[in-house]
Specification:
Layout: E1 3-4, H1 18-27, E2 32-38, H2 44-54, E3 57-68, E4 71-78, H3 85-111, H4 118-124, H5 133-142, H6 149-157, E5 170-171, H7 172-181, E6 185-188, H8 202-210, E7 215-219, H9 225-238, E8 241-244, H10 265-282
Helix pairs in contact: 1-2, 4-5, 5-6
This protein binds adenosine monophosphate (AMP), zinc ion and fe (iii) ion (2 copies).
One fe (iii) ion binds at residues 63, 74, 189-190.
């Protein structure tokens, strides 16, 4: 069983349409794939139809932008009812923050002499619901300013670079609670990726578990091997599910090929068991796993 629980499509900042992502997952020999676009369920319908066709099981999820102790934290939310009104409201506020940031970033790029406007971004981000910095990177590639997304982040879009602009994110603890109420299960995405543990050390993670967190994404490209082992130990100590995943973005990110990290079958089963308990307690109509 090969299980990859974190991937992106053109519904957010991946480069493959949801159906192509699911087909690629089947082609890569995965048995289970989760679609987890940033802050949206917009890709779920198309992904579901493709999964039924091509023999891969599909977990419908999303990667929600949150903030905790001043740090940006990504929360994977699986098998939630996407029509749960408080979740719809929270996502719509995050998506508004994404959209209102775009003109501010473009203004800063013009300040450093780059001739770019919103049409350049719309051209490269026509399918997306969740506009992000990678789309602005794609526009910069299109204009010949940078060679790839990575260069765009390094020169312009990362914190401390001239075109970085912050955006709204939900409270992590509120969102963990909301995912449970929406009948699903949450996993902290790459908790120690790209920054030191901060508030996500043993004690902080224990509090998040008590607030309803289901698991930790331990095996991820952004964690060095020693970090993975330490985080795995914490997960075991706290009774959190351990996941591993590619965080695939199509061609948008190198070293994130489908299935480059995977989740153990018994951990996957435990994740589904937790989602099922939340579903029953919530009384919500949640999307089950799509089996081919
Ligand atoms: P945003 O959603 O606008 O905050 O942008 C963050 C997204 O950009 C995340 O999904 C990352 O996967 C992606 N990202 C961050 N750094 C890079 C990079 N160097 N190259 C490609 N994508 C990146
Ligand atoms: Zn992304
Ligand atoms: Fe992430
Ligand atoms: Fe991601």
């Amino acid at each position: 069983m090969r299980i990859d629980l974190h991937t992106h499509s053109t519904a957010s900042d991946g480069t493959q349409r949801p159906r192509d992502l699911v087909r690629a997952a089947a082609g890569a020999g995965l048995d289970v794939v989760a679609i987890t676009d940033h802050d949206t369920a917009a890709g779920w319908g198309e992904a579901e139809a493709a999964a039924e066709e091509c023999g891969v099981a599909l977990v419908r999820g999303m990667e929600i932008s949150t903030r905790h102790a001043g740090q940006g934290v990504h929360l994977l939310a699986y098998l939630v009812d996407p029509t749960f009104p408080p979740l719809v409201a929270a996502l719509s506020r995050i998506l508004d923050g994404r959209n209102s940031r775009v003109p501010a970033i473009l203004e800063r790029l013009r300040t450093v002499g780059i001739d770019i406007d919103v049409h350049d971004v719309r051209r490269v981000a026509s399918n997306t619901t969740a506009t992000g910095r990678p789309h602005i990177a794609d526009a910069l590639i299109d204009l010949g300013v940078v060679a790839d997304r990575n260069e765009a982040f390094l020169r312009f879009l990362s914190p401390g670079r001239p075109a970085y602009v912050d955006r709204y994110a939900a409270s992590l603890t509120d969102m963990i609670d909301l995912v449970v109420s929406a009948g699903g299960v949450s996993v902290l995405a790459h908790p120690w990726g790209r920054h030191d543990p901060g508030a996500l050390g043993l004690l902080g993670l224990a509090e998040l578990r008590d607030a309803g967190l289901g698991g930790l994404e331990v095996d991820h490209h952004d964690h060095a091997p020693a970090m993975r082992e330490e985080l795995r130990g914490i997960a075991v100590e706290l009774g959190l599910v351990v996941t591993g995943a590619s965080d695939h973005h199509g061609d948008g990110k190198t070293d994130h090929e489908l299935g480059c990290f995977t989740t153990a079958p018994e951990q996957y089963d435990e994740l589904l068991a937790r989602a099922d308990r939340a579903r029953l307690a919530s009384g919500r109509m949640t999307p089950g796993v799509v089996h081919a």
